[in-house]
Amino acid sequence: MQIHVVNHPLIKEKMTHLRDKKTAPRNFRRLLDEIAQLLLFEVTRDLPIREVPVTTPIAETTGYALDISGITVVPILRAGLGFLDAVLDLIPEARVGHIGLTRDEETLEPIKYYCKIPKDKDAEIILIDPMLATGGSAAAALTMLKEEGYKHFRFMCLVAAPEGVELVNREHPDVPIYTAALDDHLNEHGYIVPGLGDAGDRVFGTVE
Ligand SMILES: O=P(O)(O)OC[C@H]1O[C@H](OP(=O)(O)OP(=O)(O)O)[C@H](O)[C@@H]1O
Ligand SMILES: O=c1cc[nH]c(=O)[nH]1
Ligand SMILES: [Mg+2]
């Protein structure tokens, strides 16, 4: 199984609050934001940089520039939107695409309802969605993007199930997966155990 589990005390502590069923949407969104920023540190670690000259008040020296105009961040709606602000705070020049998918509650198959991606096919795509459960949604999003001609990907999530990691590894072995936690298994309804419940519902307060 190919997966980067970003193990860090700050992430572990925040994940504990995020998982807690008593955490309300207001705090849930804030925690999601904070964890996304910490994860992004690892997700972007190998982005290419080039040297540029810079003059400090004291001397000339060498600085670094990141080619961030070539980065496209793609949230999978809805829950992926909960990650977006954090990514744009750190990479404000990134372009943003949107893929709308929702799981059929019976079959657990993803149903597509929206897709709009910036045109640059050579962009480095950071696909974001807090939950990787069966992997059907992430795998379908990556297939759609590849069919449109996009080539470079990394996937960032918060909680992954082994079933989802295996599917994405099998269908998209070129795509590295970064997660804050690798959980135990899926239950009979396709929810991650222990997980955190339905991420979209918890971000947007649509839980009954
Ligand atoms: O790995 P999978 O089994 O495909 O499950 C993961 C998907 O399920 C959730 O979305 P959901 O379908 O609940 O839509 P929502 O974000 O609108 O709530 C989640 O945000 C993922 O997109
Ligand atoms: O546990 C899960 C599985 C799919 N989608 C979620 O939001 N949570
Ligand atoms: Mg949902």
User: Strand content of the residues, in percent?
Assistant: 25-35%
Largest sheet: number of strands, sense, barrel closure: 8 strands, mixed
Provide the structure class. Answer: alpha/beta
Q: What sort of overall outline do the alpha carbons produce when their principal axes are compared?
A: globular
What name does the CATH topology carry?
A: Rossmann fold
- Give the class-level CATH name: Alpha Beta
Q: What is the count of DSSP helices, taking H or I runs of 4+ residues?
A: 6
Euclidean distance between termini CA atoms: 36 Å
Identify low-pLDDT runs: none
In helices, the fraction of residues equals: 25-40%
Name the CATH architecture.
3-Layer(aba) Sandwich
SSE arrangement, N to C: EHHEEEHEEEEEHEEHEEEEH
- What integer is the average pLDDT? 95
**What is the number of independent domains?**
1
